[in-house]
Amino acid sequence: MESNGARTWTQADVVVVGAGLSGLVAAAEAYNAGRTVIILDQEPEASLGGQAHWSFGGLFLVDSPEQRRLGVKDSAELALSDWMGSASFDRPEDALPRQWAEAYVNFAAGEKRTWLHSLGVRFFPLVQWAERGGYDAQGHGNSVPRFHVVWGTGPGILAPFLAKVQEGVAAGKVQFGFRHRATELVFDGARVAGVGGQLLKASAVGRGEASSRAVAGDFSVGAGAVVVTTGGIGGNHPMVRDQWPGGNGPGYMLTGVPASVDGEFQQAVAGAGGALINTDRMWHYPEGIHNTDPVWPNHGIRILSGPSPLWLDATGRRLPVPLFPGFDSIGTLRHLETTGHDHSWFILNKTIIEKEFALSGSEQNPDLTGKDMKLLAKRALPGAPGPIQNFIDRGVDFLQAATAPELAAKMNALVGSELIDPAGLQETLEARDRQVVSGLGKDMQLNAVREARRFATDKLMRVVPPHPMLAPEHGPLFAVRLSTLTRKSLGGLATDLQSRVLDGGGSPIPGLYAAGEAAGFGGGGMHGYRSLEGTFLGGCLFSGRTAGRHAAGATVL
Any idea where the FAD-dependent oxidoreductase 2 FAD-binding domain is (predicted)? Predict the structure, then answer.
């Protein structure tokens, strides 16, 4: 495509707006069907792959060989029950999201793994247990471990689709239009016939870095079908606050996605008649920490913790059951909103931090991302993994001390307020330790830790045996300040099961499709109010594949 500042017009069978995972999958499927494809993205080529590149590469699979080898008994029925208990669909507009949820669970229990395996995707054999819930059998959470980490993390899941699209480029059937910022749909009568927007000036920034919005010209691209895969809103804090359920959200938030994740084209589609639903349903994390090496503005990283750290609010009170690390992200976020403070704390010791702390993201897991077995083996050695040690040494949110009163003093100094009572923190830890020493006890978090260690992965690499937190041989003590980290939209453009975007009356808009986060990963919100984790990349795969196939079928060569 031309990029010289002049007005241009280009034509393709399918135009995909957004070069993240769902867009690449849609483009690959359309190319496989023999269609010509143009992929537009406002960012430079360095950011090809979007958020998926930065992800940990977790995928929700049901009754997989990896689960069965670990003795996990899963089924489509159990997974669907967990999904519906977490989603809690309760709105008239949830009819299609519910259908998408059922279709996705069947996909995850059926052809998903076989399809990915045929494309060369492989999985780390130790399945992880995310979002454990902790309520009743029909409530939120995964009854069994289902979080399968791709060998190669986010880049590993992108690789086969990037390869297929590049094959299309070499064949002259696929084109990229980087620095093409779509701002409007082009209509031919009632049918979407293309996309218009701004041609941005070239940018040499690195992957994920904020790029200039300086305009060099404008463009129009004609299409037999348009697929919207522009992602969510997590990089746009004003929009996040505007859509926050019941208010403006925390006063301070970290950003878990690049600034380009701005939601603006999704709004343009809504302005052109597309139904945008469930926008108040979002998936942000309460365990965010400041990145020691930020790439985008206010760049945060999520801690993936085992269940042993005590989670305290800003004033030093333990969070209520079952708001333990890794059990209920949204429930924890909602509770912390009631405290009147923008931060909370993990309290733990050296023994726990070395085994139970991990960090989300491809760049924070160089062993899995780089498929480096020697580096992976070092996780079994004494001491914290390299990325964790980096945050211990350099992270502004990480504090350590020999005693609880000393730790409380450092916590208060970091936030500039005497919110933590040193004697109260000491008493909280002593009470917890008495429960450990009893051998039985009534502390539900300790019972959850013991239960977790019944699962092989947790016992081997994620959960330490219960022990006195204050025991000197397990010291020093650590406190980690946590902030809200923006991440995903759970609502989006309403789509039917063919990924066609619907108007306000529920009718498909001819020629218009949507996939990935822009479509709430399908239907305008297939997760409902909560996610079971590992379902975001998978949602991009499933909805991107659906959109690409149906968009290709709707065009005429």
Answer: 13-537
How far is it, in rounded angstroms, from Cα 358 to Cα 389? 11
pLDDT digits (tens, 9 = 90+) for 182-235: 999 999 999 999 999 999 999 999 999 999 999 999 999 999 999 999 999 999
Tokens standing for 109?
Answer: 């229990």
Taking residue 428's Cβ as centre, other Cβ atoms within 10 Å add up to 19
CA pair distance 5, 366, nearest whole angstrom? 40
In tens, the pLDDT along 121-145 reads: 999 999 999 999 999 999 999 999 9
Helix (H) or strand (E) run with residue 359 in it: strand 357-359
Token code pair at residue 242: 């505007």
- Rounded to whole angstroms, the Cα distance separating 93 from 212 reads 38
pLDDT tens digits for range 20-62: 999 999 999 999 999 999 999 999 999 999 999 999 999 999 9
Give burial (CB, 10 Å; 0-12/13-18/19+) of 456: middle
Packed helices 111-118 and 95-109: angle between N→C axes, nearest 10 degrees: 60
* Structure tokens that stand for 453 in this block: 């260690």
Q: How distant is the alpha carbon of residue 105 from its chain centre?
A: 18
Task: Tally helices (H) and strands (E) across the chain.
Answer: 18, 20
